[in-house]
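Practice problem 4.
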């Protein structure tokens, strides 16, 4: 259930903006099974996945967390950093060893304020990802907990 190609950074940001964003990155790794963030926690950073797979999950009262989506190479991990109140809407766990580029959210938001066109482009990129993830969450939850056949696209 990977995000559509429109959510990957190379197709979403111009070379100039991609380069500017990547200047703010640092490389980090997570081991298999590592919890990267928890639903409801403070969203102060985000990642672009270099290698590996991560599951996005949602707490469901009285049940195990439901896996909403799986992300891989070149996908954005985390969008809650951009929109107040900067609180994670989902949780994330490394399914395999994960290598990422990590970004400090405050630094990226400050750059977005300094250059409104850069900020608009980043907001559109992240907004497309949010729309996809919300649809994926809806579909997955209907598949897991709704009446048979209710999760399909209409």
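Answer key:
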């Amino acid at each position: 259930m990977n995000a559509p190609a429109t959510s990957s950074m190379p197709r979403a940001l111009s070379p100039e903006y991609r380069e500017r964003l990547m200047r703010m990155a640092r490389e980090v790794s997570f081991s298999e099974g590592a919890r990267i963030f928890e639903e409801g926690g403070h969203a102060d950073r985000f990642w672009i996945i270099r290698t590996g797979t991560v599951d996005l999950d949602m707490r469901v009262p009285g049940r195990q967390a439901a896996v909403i989506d799986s992300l891989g190479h070149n996908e954005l991990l985390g969008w809650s950093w951009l929109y107040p109140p900067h609180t994670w809407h989902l949780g994330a766990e490394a399914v395999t060893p994960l290598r990422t580029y990590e970004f400090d959210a405050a630094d990226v938001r400050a750059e977005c304020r300094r250059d409104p066109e850069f900020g608009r482009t980043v907001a559109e990129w992240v907004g497309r990802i949010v729309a996809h993830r919300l649809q994926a969450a809806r579909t997955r939850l209907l598949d897991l907990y709704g009446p048979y056949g209710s999760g399909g696209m209409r």
